[in-house]
Design a protein that fits this description.
mainly alpha; three-stranded mixed β-sheet; 10 helices; 65% helix
Length: 326
Amino acid sequence: MSASGGTKAIVAALAANLAIAVAKFVAFVFSGSSSMLAESVHSLADSGNQALLLVGGKRAQRRATPEHPFGYGRERYIYAFLVSIVLFSVGGMFALYEGYEKIKHPHELEHWYWPVGVLIFAIIAESFSFRTAIQESNALRGKRSWKEFVRHSKAPELPVVLLEDLGALVGLILALGGVSLALATGDSVWDGIGTLCIGVLLILIALVLAVETKSLLLGEAAGAEETRKIEAAVVDGDTVTRIIHMRTLHLGPEELLVAAKIAVRHDDTAAEIAAAIDAAEVRIREAVPIARVIYLEPDIFSEAAAAKGPDIEATPGGPARPDAGH
């Protein structure tokens, strides 16, 4: 994975979740708390999710092949989507089931100090993991809000870890609240209610992750700032006079495809146009280093055709009307 910060956050979360999962399961064995069982499964699922992110980052580094000429960068998106499925099924649905069973068949908590002590330990450990994810994310998000960072980040790992850690912290607080109310009232139904709340929380986080990673899998364009830099780099005002139309696509978090039809002067020679295209590619890569696959098609700009408005069908890979102008 090229983003070392992302790897650091994942490893920190993995180490924390493995330790917490063991501690929670021990607490469940001694206390019989359904919240602790749901939380131990949650931490175990999170550990598996972080392992998936590491595997996806490793597989994405494979070289391009004739069968996959644009490489394997999108493997990171696929594994991030798998994380949302695991979080929904193993984490959320299991917690809902366990909470329902606890409410339907309540039983008194035993050795209450085990779950309370483990939950306090887990909150401290998850806080350190969450702090690491925040620090590494701050280096990438710039002036964007946290909502914009999660929604528009092209690298899925940090948003996934951020949401998982946030969900883990809130889930631990819910579990601690359920256990505390069960002890205070003598009614273990509160433990089951806390478990149900954990399940709902995990399902909501899983749905957010699924929506965002699905968008990445479908293929997202470059961000607004990167698009402006590319447009400024293409036009030199001499041979390349303007961009007729341009499309960008993320082949992976750190690999961008740029395809554009550019306007050149009608009296330029083939050699001059070829040299201008080569120079434009150099400028694009200097402005946006992740623009690694660039296709520039020269054409003669037509004022009459431009006055008719853009032809939305004349896009790369799509049908173009026979009468469509340049």
